[in-house]
Each structure stands twice: as structure tokens, then as C-alpha cells.
Amino acid sequence: MSLHAPGLFITFEGIDGAGKSTHLTTLAERLRRHGREVTVTREPGGTPLAETLRECLLHTPMDALTEALLMFAARRDHLRQVIEPALAAGQVVLCDRFTDATFAYQGHGRGFDLAVLRTLEGWVQTMDGGFRQPDLTLWFDVSPAVAASRLSGARAPDKFESEPRAFFDRVAAGYAQRAAEAPQRFVRIDAHVPMDDVWQQVEAACRQRGWLS
Ligand SMILES: Nc1ncnc2c1ncn2[C@@H]1O[C@H](COP(=O)(O)OP(=O)(O)OP(=O)(O)O)[C@@H](O)[C@H]1O
Ligand SMILES: Cc1cn([C@H]2C[C@H](O)[C@@H](COP(=O)(O)O)O2)c(=O)[nH]c1=O
Questions:
Q1: Which intervals hold domain Thymidylate kinase-like (predicted)?
Q2: Which CATH number characterizes residue 174's domain?
Q3: Domain annotation covers residue 88
Q4: Mean pLDDT for the chain?
Q5: Does 74 fall in a domain?
Q6: Does any domain span residue 213?
Q7: Would you state the pLDDT for residue 134?
Q8: Which residues span the domain enclosing 201?
Q9: Is the CB of 100 under 6 A from ligand 1?
Q10: Binding site: residue ranges?
Q11: How confident is the model at residue 4 (pLDDT cuts 50, 70, 90)?
């Protein structure tokens, strides 16, 4: 069963450097101009507790199970403190990464058991009376080589960004698999093209759903 709320839950996914944050900011501006109240948030993070966990997750070595459990612990707090209240108030929630990232990074990137992740997903996203999933997931699909070239020199790489190219090949394949499993929720955005062309695709996905005119 899925949960219905008056708001909209839109997630942004893709490997590091795909262009998610850039277009999330643009979409937030456009939706606000369109009269919507928008909450912009991110994972791991979005609450004081989850931001504390983010610091550990991005900078402290740990095994894959610990990493997956901390990702989901941060997510549970984020859902309860931020996402659900905003959706209940009729807001649009734009979230930079959500559970698809755990399947892509911990599942495919690290090789952690996907069945365990599915169990954790079921526990963590079960809220009062239903199962919370995004209404739309914009998947910014870009090759690891292009993504790396966009990030190079931009900032000191964190634990994930320091992984080798083969890790990101697996993560990218993980996103493709998640998208194939939920075609009604995912929209693939070709993120290789110039920013304006990427934005056109994001805008089209929202227009098709009547969320922008
Ligand atoms: N389509 C594009 N063409 C060229 N450069 C781009 C494009 N989209 C984003 N960029 C640039 O690439 C860099 C990374 O973009 P951005 O921070 O939006 O990616 P991200 O997916 O949010 O990355 P991360 O997950 O690491 O935070 C930025 O410097 C941004 O200006
Ligand atoms: C939610 C989530 C995130 N990650 C990784 C992916 C990124 O490398 C970092 C977050 O950094 P960003 O600059 O905010 O994109 O965390 C992950 O491995 N698993 C997850 O569930």
C-alpha cells in the first residue's frame, strides 16, 4: 500500500557530479514561482541527528552493514521529522538522494546484500498506515568519466568520491536496475548534455504531471 499525502515527494538521484543539486535548486525556484511551498533537503542529512550521521558516513571508514544501517537510521529520522510533516502540510519536498542511493552505493557499489536492503527499506519507509515512496525520482544518468571531470578540483573528495572508477560503474548499473524495477516512478534524465538541455528534461517531466505550466 502506498501512502497518500497532499504534498509531492520528488527525489534526485545519480552518481556524484551528475548535476542533481544544480537542477534541484532550479526546480525549487520554479515551483515556488508557480505558487508551491517547497522544502529542499538531502540525504544523508536533513535533521540535526541525520547531519551528524552524515559527517560519520562521509568521512569515517566502516563496514558495509554499518554504513547501510546508518543510512537507514538517518533516513528514518529525516522522514519522521521533516519529510512527512512537510508532505502532510501540502508542500513539495525536493530531496537530494533517498533510498535508491542506498541500493546503488551500498548494494551495487559495495556489494551489500540487496535482500537485506529491501527489508530495511520496508521497515524504515513504513509510516502510519502505509509505505512511503517518492512520487517521482529524477535519475540523472551520466557516465562516471563525465561526472568525475565535473567534480575534479571542485572540493576535497569525501569517502565516496574517493572511490575508484569501477565503484561508480557499479553504482551507475545499480541506478539503472532500480529504474528498470520501478519505471512508473523513475524518469531518466540524460545528464551528459549542457545544463539548459538537462533542465528542459526536468521541466518536461514536471509539466507532464501538471506540476509546472
Ligand atoms: N549538464 C552539465 N554540464 C556541465 N556541467 C554541469 C552540468 N550539470 C552540472 N554541472 C556542473 O557539475 C558540477 C557538479 O554539479 P552538481 O553539484 O549539481 O552535481 P551533484 O550531482 O549534485 O553532485 P554531488 O552528488 O557530488 O553533490 C558543478 O560544478 C555544476 O556546475
Ligand atoms: C543517501 C545516500 C548517499 N550515499 C552517498 C552518495 C554520496 O557520495 C554521499 C552524499 O554526498 P552528496 O554530495 O550529498 O551527494 O553519500 C550513499 O552511499 N548511500 C545513501 O543511501
A1: 12-201
A2: 3.40.50.300
A3: yes
A4: 96
A5: yes
A6: no
A7: 98
A8: 8-208
A9: no
A10: 14-21
A11: low
